[in-house]
Amino acid sequence: MCHNFYRIGTTLVLLIFISFVSLSQESVDKPDSKLKAGCTFSINTNGISSIPSFSLGDPALIAAPTLTLGRFNYEPVLAYDLDIQPWFIDNWFRFKIINRPKFEFRTGLNFSMYFSDYKLPDDTVLQGQRYWAAEFTAIYKPSARSFISGAYWNDRGQDEGTITGHYLALMGERSEIGIGKTFLLAFNLHLFYINYTGPNDGLFISPKLTASLKNLPFSLYLHCIQAITSNISPFPGFSWNLGFAYTI
Questions:
Q1: Residues 18, 10 contacting (CB under 8 angstroms)
Q2: Which domain holds residue 77?
Q3: d(CA 47, CA 29)
Q4: What's the chain's average pLDDT?
Q5: What pLDDT digit, counting tens, does each position of 102-133 carry?
Q6: Residue 221 neighbours by CB under 8 Å, 6+ apart
Q7: Scanning 11, 36, 54, 194, which has the fewest C-beta atoms within 10 Å of its C-beta?
Q8: Among residues 61, 71, 54, which one has the least CA distance to residue 10?
């Protein structure tokens, strides 16, 4: 049943994305209603998550389309392991309440599903668990190449055995740091606190370094997460991954 749900969800996301891309091509001459569409495909060595309970712990394939129409954004994420078994599916719907050149305040809703192995006496099946989350995020952009943001999520599990809680984050990023005439670097620093059902609380720091070539859609990145303090057992400690991304 979970496989069917995931296939249906994946198909719907792809159909919506293709439809919006088509509409985007038709509305080129209408600046106020122009739809922007893009997508980032990535592969990494270790599927890690800000919430340790949701980490895959194995290499992952991720597709992250983005659809923007005025103040509205639709940002689904489809994630699999290398055997093409589903890891999670996100459906973020976001609206920019304030949208100024240097400041943005948005709210959003996410309807998601996480998948994990569920052991039966004689078999192991794939189990899907439903979540929804509400988001409030403020972003200050001192320049076109940098930003500072603060975010709050209220995350709610909908099925038996799911967890519920709060996510608070501060983030800063500096992009397009030129290295010679060819290379670009981007650095992102993420500090976040999670407070979830049971022993799932903690304060974490997460840096990310991305390297790319000018005028090419490919990039390499190193992403790390270090627990500062946590009641999760065993202690999450340090985790990292290397990834390759392609953006259209």
A1: no
A2: 2-247
A3: 41
A4: 88
A5: 999 999 999 999 998 888 888 888 889 999 99
A6: 208, 209, 210, 211, 242, 243, 244, 245
A7: 11
A8: 61
Across the range 230-235, mean pLDDT stands at 94
- Only one residue has tokens 């995931």, namely 6
Residue 95 φ/ψ region, left for φ over 0, alpha for ψ in the -120 to 50 degree band, beta for the rest: beta
- How many whole angstroms separate alpha carbon 242 and alpha carbon 223? 6
Reading the block at residue 136, the tokens are 């409030």
Predicted model pTM:
0.83
3-state secondary structure of 136: strand
Domains in the chain: how many in total? 1
At 8, which helix (H) or strand (E)? helix 2-26
CATH at residue 67 = 2.40.160.40
Rounded Cα distance, 30 and 105, in Å:
25
